[in-house]
Amino acid sequence: MEVINALGRRKTAVARVYLKSGNGSIVVNKRDFREYFPTGILQFVVEQPLALTGNVGTYDIKVNLAGGGINGQAEALSLAISRALIEINPEFRPVLKAKGLLRRDPRMVERKKPGQPKARKKFQFSKR
User: What pLDDT sits at residue 26?
Assistant: First the structure.
């Protein structure tokens, strides 16, 4: 089997995934994903597409992650893995879609406006 590429994004995080058949190792930025994502919740988020499709331990996944925070990176990686699995087998689509793993979360940080300390917050008004 050849290498399958996929891309996932969340906020400012970008995950590039390279998926090939193997023994189930997930390497994120040349580190094991359990070391990169120390909490169980983030590890669950990353493995969720594989677990739902019954592919845990089937594919070797190499990931390049850049930008954002650790939570955004985990969700970007989950989206990228889901997209790669659909490229391999289109029958996985209904299962992943039902769990919302194919939706690119569009929420981004609102930009800071001039004359204000943050995006919406205003400086305190002084009458005199």
Answer: 92
Shortest CA distance to 10 belongs to which of 90, 89, 96, 102?
A: 102
- For the chain, the domains span 4-98
| Exposure on the CB side of residue 51, measured as CA atoms within 13 A | 9
Which residue is associated with the tokens 């189930």? 24
CB distance 29 to 66 below 8 Å? no
Instruction: Write out pLDDT tens, residues 28-44.
Output: 999 999 999 999 999 99
54-72 CB burial, b ≥16 within 10 A, e <16: ebeeebebbbebeebeebb
- pTM above the 0.85 mark? yes
Joined tokens for residue 80:
């990228």
Answer whether CATH 3.30.230.10 is correct for domain 4-98.
Answer: yes
